[in-house]
């Protein structure tokens, strides 16, 4: 009886014992073949079960012949314990593979949601726009600049423009303009903004996306550089729904590694859309670094129109989404198959390291902290930085935690949020899945660079 109770205890322990938790894994944990691995592992388990069944029958036969009860009980308990341990280990492995495989669909879903948010251009009146950007003087300047153009105050607009042409030429551009609606203004970097607006003239609305670089060194703002793309023309009377540009025919959106070997940078503009820390660790020689969040917020407007755009990211997830997004803007964009990691595995040219863990391998980057430890740390002044997506954070978060998510935040806004974190020897980043945990590592490294310890 006591052996039976012992076996039940082991089974209960295997079911209710704490499961393995991955707090801040580097991105090289990504698994893209989870389903195949699960199938293979299932076959292994079935084979092992059959083997154990045969072994068990041999033991029973041995007992019947030898009548050695104690040895039989000892071997039986050993087999049961070994079976429980193997099954527990196996199911934990399967669970881990499922979680890792879900990363890809999770990241794609979040990216698509972010793209949807950026693409929802809703006409708003001036008061709403001013309320939204009331604390951003650069954005207010841009709002006023286009308001002046729309109202015919061209002298005021010209006074703060780039002035690459004379006033007569500038005024001729807007002689038929009857109004301007500014839809959205996004801060990209310091004194650099993207904006979406519609300019009305001759019964039509022309939609534009523009990136403006401002200068305020003389005590007032003026435009010193700009890049403009026409999104579409449409009749004002039928201005409803989404703005859709005429679709163009491009080559295959995926660039294979064999194609990339012979890439000509005089004809291709190569964009590395990873985070700063990833790019600094290693990158393709000659590539241009533009963070994923900045691309979505409007940095895509500055991409050259006379070259094919090729996007590199870690595993091709971000790259594929960006390439699709750019093609919707009539930009000839492609992405590198399997991303940077696949390219390095292929043996392709690379400068520096590719594995994030090659530099960020110390315990503070991978440790999982217990709830009690975190509670004690907070009571002693530690600051919690929640690196989950802002929407998830707003739904539920630990009281007092600061929300800083790097992957989907423009550089300018991210810098403001990082600078707002007080210097402290106890910064703890919070995450709850593969995506937010990688984000937590990025945020932690950025805080370290600012000498704010995490």
Automatic annotation (TrEMBL):
Name all Rhodanese domain ranges. Answer: 264-352, 378-404
Pfam families in alphabetical order? Rhodanese (PF00581)
Q: Does the keyword Transmembrane apply?
A: yes
Task: Name the InterPro entries on file.
Answer: GlpE_sulfurtransferase, Rhodanese-like_dom, Rhodanese-like_dom_sf
Report TM segments.
Answer: 39-59, 71-91
Q: Which UniProt keywords apply?
A: Membrane, Transmembrane, Transmembrane helix
Enumerate the PANTHER family for this protein: FAD-DEPENDENT OXIDOREDUCTASE, OXIDOREDUCTASE
* Protein's name in the database: Rhodanese
Q: Which organism is it from?
A: Candidatus Uhrbacteria bacterium GW2011_GWC1_41_20
């Amino acid at each position: 009886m006591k052996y039976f109770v012992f076996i039940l205890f082991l089974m209960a322990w295997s079911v209710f014992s704490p499961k393995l938790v991955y707090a801040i894994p580097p991105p090289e944990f990504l698994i893209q073949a989870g389903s195949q691995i699960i199938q293979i592992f299932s076959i292994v388990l079935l084979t092992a079960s059959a083997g154990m069944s045969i072994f068990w029958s041999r033991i029973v036969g041995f007992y019947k012949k030898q009548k050695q009860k104690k040895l039989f009980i000892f071997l039986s308990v050993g087999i049961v314990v070994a079976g429980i341990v193997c099954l527990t280990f196996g199911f934990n492995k399967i669970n881990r593979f499922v979680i890792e495989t879900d990363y890809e669909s999770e990241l794609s879903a979040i990216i698509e949601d972010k793209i949807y948010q950026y693409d929802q251009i809703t006409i708003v009146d001036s008061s709403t726009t001013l309320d939204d950007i009331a604390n951003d003087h650069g954005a207010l300047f841009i709002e006023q600049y286009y308001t002046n153009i729309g109202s015919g105050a061209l002298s005021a607009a010209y006074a703060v423009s780039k002035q690459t042409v004379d006033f007569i030429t500038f005024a001729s551009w807007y002689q038929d303009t009857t109004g301007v609606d500014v839809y959205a203004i996004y801060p990209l970097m310091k004194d650099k903004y993207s904006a979406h607006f519609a300019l009305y003239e001759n019964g039509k609305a022309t939609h534009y996306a523009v990136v403006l670089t401002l200068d305020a060194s003389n005590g007032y703002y003026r435009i010193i550089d700009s890049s403009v793309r026409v999104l579409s023309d449409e009749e004002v009377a039928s201005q409803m729904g989404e703005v859709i540009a005429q679709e163009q025919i491009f080559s295959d959106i995926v660039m294979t590694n064999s194609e990339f070997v012979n890439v000509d940078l005089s004809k291709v503009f190569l964009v590395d859309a990873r985070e700063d820390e990833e790019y600094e660790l290693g990158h393709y020689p000659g590539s241009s670094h533009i963070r994923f969040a900045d691309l979505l917020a409007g940095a895509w407007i500055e991409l050259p129109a006379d070259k094919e755009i090729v996007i590199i990211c870690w595993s091709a997830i971000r790259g594929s989404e960006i390439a699709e997004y750019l093609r919707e803007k009539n930009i000839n964009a492609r992405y590198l198959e399997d991303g940077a990691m696949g390219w390095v595995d292929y043996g392709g040219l690379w400068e520096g390291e590719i594995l994030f863990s090659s530099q960020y391998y110390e315990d503070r980057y991978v440790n999982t902290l217990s709830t009690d430890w975190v509670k004690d740390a907070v009571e002693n002044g530690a600051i919690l930085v929640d690196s989950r997506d802002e929407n998830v954070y707003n739904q539920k978060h630990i009281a007092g935690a600061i929300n800083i998510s790097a992957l989907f935040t423009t550089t300018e806004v991210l810098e403001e949020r990082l600078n707002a974190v007080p210097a402290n020897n106890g910064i703890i980043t919070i995450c709850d899945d593969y995506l937010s945990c990688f984000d937590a590592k990025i945020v932690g490294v950025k805080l370290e660079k600012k000498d704010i310890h995490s």
